Amino acid sequence: MGWLWGSGNAANDKLDASLRDFLDKENPTGPKPSLPSKPVEKSTETQTTEPEPQKPIVPPESQFQDGRYAHLWKNYVPQHQLEDRSKSEQDRLRDAVDSFNDRKADVGRAAMENCAFEYMAQFDCFKSPNWTQASTMCRAETRTFNRCYDIQSKFLKALGYMTMEYRSPEDSEAIQMHADRLYQQMLEQEKLIEKAKEEGKPIPKFEGILSKQNVARAMADKITGAAPSAPGQVITEEEEAAVWKRIKPESRKLYEKKIAELPPEEREIERKAILGELKAEGSMVKSVEQTFIEERINRMKRKEAGQATIGDMIKSLWGWD
């Protein structure tokens, strides 16, 4: 192998003369190319951090909220929006009223689910009562269930369960869970207060159960960071002022009288529940008014184009224009 690698001694190199001539011809001449210099490391003090690229927006229906497959969701339209496009004005009016009534019924259903244990205790008491329960006609069990159902319903209303805006079933379930969590927290606070009274200790002071800070602590998920009017949050002061502004003075006096008749610890809960229901009712009324406006505009367009229907003519005679 000495012919290939060489021994370091020119006398011992036994290359063929033709091969040596070829290597001499192909051997590059001139200065040797210089290697690229080592890049200078930038100091962390002078280096500016580039802003991270904004993630593509994807709808909540996507399982990849980090922006993957955003191009596939570019022209996506939710199913409820597609259905709304094909509805007439009458259908939209009916849907607005039916949706409000359905939300009121949903509050009762969700409260019933949250009070399932209290209901079963009442049911078992009536089915097979002991001597004490029979003598009191299950008064304690009935009172416990009725209070649970009433307070849970108010919590659900205060947390926006009756909101008319579209929300996913997951959001509804989260609100229902938060209402039950707040109710259990309220019961725990009441136990601590009763224990302090029995032991003669100072009564502990707690933050309002529906205060903004307490609700935020109880809702450690995505709803907490949502918009102020989103479901799962108590109504803000600005929204409260807007709600009372729409209510007639005489009606507001009746609401305030109803709140004042309650015990002090229940007044705030009742007030937030009333505001939640009034806010949902205002959204329903606004939706109905918007539908009437759109229907009137479409009716005027048909009249100008000479395509007025019999219904348009009847409404014109009734002075709906």
Secondary structure elements and their pairing?
Blueprint: H1 2-5, H2 17-26, H3 79-85, H4 89-114, H5 116-127, H6 131-136, H7 139-158, H8 169-199, H9 212-218, H10 237-246, H11 249-260, H12 264-304, H13 310-317
What do these coordinates show?
This protein is mainly α and 321 residues long. The protein has a domain of 199 residues. Helix content is 60%, strand content 0%.
Portion in strands:
under 5%
The parts where pLDDT drops under 50 for at least 5 residues are: 1-13, 221-229
Number of helices: 13
- Output the structural class: mainly alpha
Radius of gyration: 37 Å
How many angstroms separate the termini? 107 Å
Order of helices and strands: HHHHHHHHHHHHH
Q: Which sheet architecture does the biggest sheet show?
A: none
The average pLDDT score comes to: 77
Bulk shape: extended
What level of helicity do the residues show?
55-70%
Count all strands and give the number.
0
Features:
single chain; mainly alpha; 60% helix; Autophagy-related protein 6; 321 residues
